[in-house]
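Batch job 17 of 40 flagged for manual review because the log was empty.
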Amino acid sequence: MKYDLPNAERDRYLAEERLIFESTELVAEKMAEVGMTGRDLAKALGVSPGEISQRMSGTRNLTLRSLASMLHALGVEAEVRERSLAKPSEQNGEARATGSATIPDLAVGTATVIPFRGTFATVGTRRAEAQAV
């Protein structure tokens, strides 16, 4: 694992993992909303169901193009926004959190525990629900 890296490198790695997790969660949520299975999405994109599984589990690189095509097939598009890395005291609507998140790997039936420490936005339903857990 990459958790024994120096702080700056570890923080960058965790930022990458957060973005991947948030992206795949968005796709999964939209699939559930429209009642589309991974097999249905694969057919719509002209790829194998295994490729969709790999994209969703993080074993295959999820490019911006592949994310955009998945979301387009689900009837939505992505919007990219930045989030400041400033201290929470310098940000409105953000909170500091430390702990761990368990991320299931549905492809192999295991889970990865990722420790986290950082600033998380509290704006929007998804983020507010995630902090309430």
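Reviewer: the log was empty due to a logging misconfiguration, but the result itself is present. Residues 13 and 50 are 26 Å apart (CA to CA). Unflagging and moving on to job 18.
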